Amino acid sequence: MKNNNVSNDWLFEITPKNKFFSLNLKEVWQYRDLLFLFVKRDVITVYKQTVLGPLWYLIQPLFTSVTFTIIFNNVAGINTGTVPPFLFNLAGITVWNYFTACLNGTSDTFKSNAGIFGKVYFPRIITPLSVVISNLIKFGIQFLIFIAFYCYYYLIGTDLSLNGLVLFFPVLIIIMGILGLGLGMLISSMVTKYRDFSYLVGFGIQLLMYLSAVMYPMELLKDKLPKYGWLVEYNPLAYIIETARYMLLDVGKISIPGLLYTLVFTIAVFFIGLLVFNKTEKSFIDTV
Amino acid sequence: MEKDIILKAENISKQYRLGQVGTGTLSHDLNRWWHQVRGKENPYLKIGDTNDRSTKGESDYVWALQDINFEVERGDVLGIIGKNGAGKSTLLKILSKVTAPTTGSIKSRGRIASLLEVGTGFHGEMTGRENVYLNGAILGMTKKEITSKIDEIIEFSGCERYIDTPVKRYSSGMTVRLAFAVAAFLEPEILVIDEVLAVGDAEFQKKAIGKMQDISRQGGRTVLFVSHNMAAVENLCTKCILLEHGFVVFTGSTPDVISYYLSNQKVVSTKLSEIKERKGNGVLNFTEGIIKDNINPINSIETFSDFEIKLNYNLDPNVLVLNNRIDIGINNYMGDRVAWVSSSNIIHDFDMKKGEIVFKITNSPLAPGEYACNIYAEINNEVSDWLISVMPFTVIEKDYYKSGKLIPSNQGSILLNYNIK
To answer: Which residues form the ABC transporter domain (chain B) (predicted)?
Structure first.
């Protein structure tokens, strides 16, 4: 038998349960190269063997914006003020797309990586993290197209102005990424045992878009449907999208309490997601 | 001298739930959660059957491993042996942190890397070189480490020419070579290996085994090696543990454990009389079949050894036997006939009064693998009893050529006794 002072120098211990909360940042840092390589893999392999390649990044938001403009602005007659409806929709969709890409990508982390997770250990959080980062690159490309259209409208003399708060736009996007990551981790953990959740995400995202002020100003819904206004008011995503448009196009309103609520909500979801994710990663391979 | 323990397993147990995940799981989950909330122990830990896949259990829960304790010293090459389903892979999964044990703990003083299966995380659209980086990083190397070894890795794999081609254009053999090459250049303190030797062609296997030996002998690295392949275990490992139905049944030096393993296999003579699916007029009925080495019944045979197949039968006393023959066809796991022995080749009509016939086979050239017999009796030119695929047995590899080199598994279904002049 060994004496106690000797057995203290173990490098690590594998036990049935994780400590209540353990995000091993040191370990994640050790695997930073893996994170980078995963991001690289995601970016370079997405549109391999397609003719249009990275153009697909641009086609999707453009066509969606055109469709939204026709349906919601021309047919349904939603008023976007002085801002051209197309630009209004493009802003909303670009930001919204980043959220859905994060959520979709992370919510089946365990299921789609079961093969690799079942064979080798690395900090599992690397995988959803890489999804959020590689989607950030995709978002960057899509945002460029928004800038291009912004300049175009500006040059043809449309009355456009940025809001000074646009400097905080990156912060807003990071909050959105963290929210997507948190929700994704939560859902991916539950999907390991109950596949029901992956179906829920599929149409849940669709429905959520209509509640997130993507194609209409937040005020409009509150005016037209006062009874259901709370649905949007309690939706942190609506605040993010509304604020993004406020920063980029100077339309709508900025709500500080709303943003604070969003921030608290995001942090809470992220930590709950992390907690559940950590708990799941230990033995999900037995149930997936 | 104080022992330098690098890895220590204490009371490792692992419970699995059998059957499908459905509403039953939800109710168990809720019950477990309710116990946890009240600060009580998980109610499902007390139940569960021993892991024996052939018997029908009472409970939905099964213990894949129970109370596993062992210590590994720095520089040891520990073999983990046991039959299919004994819990070897589960143990390795726990060691490589893929899944957590249900109870117990493992303490380690070194980084553990596993080669549970080579080629994990290869992406078909990326080139060989990109995959080396990705796979290396997954296995725990940093980019810098990989860059410093990439030339060696590529050279070892023998895929220089294709290294900048997407992996999806590779043959499966090339993929495996590249993947193994990455893994071979890992440098963790503890390396966990599961059956990787069964890959690639003969030339590459030789290289792979050589590399394994280098790793374990010169590097002073600690290796945990899981295999069915007794010759490989004998050749590489200093110590072994033997698992059976989730328990450690024997620990010791490799030769001791292997001889224990071989001598303690549960041997079942096949009760042929109980088999319903048979053809023939029933004039003769096979009752029992046993495979023996010179003395004892066995169900695994070493390569190039002698063995006997003994068949007992009942003969209808009212039938006058004018001519007779009994045949045994030996089929491999694919169902292909590899050998055939018949009484008619040796003696035209043998004396059937004894009620048994023994086929003595010497210096058996059967290659390692799983086999089964078709047995056939013909009396007075009519089929009297015919059973398909009974009396399964295993041929296991012995280091016959005394070289420590194995015969690759895909190199033919018989072995030749040969010499080089």
So the answer is: 45-270
Q: pLDDT for A113-128, tens place per residue?
A: 888 888 788 888 899 9
Q: Both B231 and B335 in a single domain?
A: no
Say whether A120 and B139 touch across the interface (CB within 8 A): yes
A193 touches B: beta carbon within 8 Å: yes
> Do A37 and B101 lie within an 8 Å CB cutoff?
no
Residue of chain B minimizing CA distance to A17: B100
Choose the final residue of a domain: B263, B280, B309.
B263
Task: Determine whether the interchain pair B116/A119 forms a contact, defined as Cβ–Cβ distance below 8 Å.
Answer: yes
Tokens for B208? 């792979």
Contact B123 A41 (CB under 8 A): yes
User: Which CATH number belongs to the domain containing residue B380 in this structure?
Assistant: 2.70.50.60
The shortest C-alpha distance from A140 to chain B (Å) reads 23
- Are residues B338 and B282 part of one domain? yes
CATH number at residue B66: 3.40.50.300
Domain enclosing residue B310, as ranges: 270-396
Measured between beta carbons, the chain A residues lying within 8 angstroms of B93 are 118, 285
Compare all CA atoms of chain B with the CA of A10 and give the residue at the minimum distance.
B109
Of A116, A122, A193, the CB nearest to B140: A122
Same domain flag for B233 and B338: no
Min mean pLDDT across A270-274, B207-211, B288-292 is at B207-211
Same domain? For B155 and B280 the reply is no
Rounded to the nearest integer, the mean pLDDT of chain A is 83
* Contacting A residues, span 30-69, partner chain B, CB-CB under 8 Å: 30-31, 33-34, 36-38, 40-41, 44-45, 48-49
> B239 with B377, same domain?
no
pLDDT given for residue A21 in this prediction: 53
Residue of B109, B130, B143 with shortest CB distance to A33 = B143
Q: What is the pLDDT of residues A168-193, one digit of tens each?
A: 889 989 999 999 999 999 998 888 87
Q: Is residue B112 a part of any domain in this protein?
A: yes
Whether B25 is in a domain gets the answer no
pLDDT on residue B139: 83
Spatial CA neighbour of A239 closest among A127, A133, A99, A102:
A99
Name the band, by pLDDT with cuts 50, 70 and 90, for residue A268: very high
* pLDDT tens-digit readout, A41-70: 888 887 776 777 778 788 888 888 888 888
B384 and B368 co-located in one domain: yes
Q: Is the pLDDT of residue A137 over 70?
A: yes
Cβ separation A16–B102 shorter than 8 A: yes
State whether B122 and B204 are in the same domain: yes
Q: Give A40's contacts in chain B (Cβ within 8 Å).
A: 130
B374, part of any domain: yes
Give the end of a domain, one of B237, B263, B289: B263
Specify if B36 maps to a domain.
no
Q: Taking CB atoms and an 8 Å cutoff, what residues of chain A touch B67?
A: none
Total domains in the fold of chain B: 2
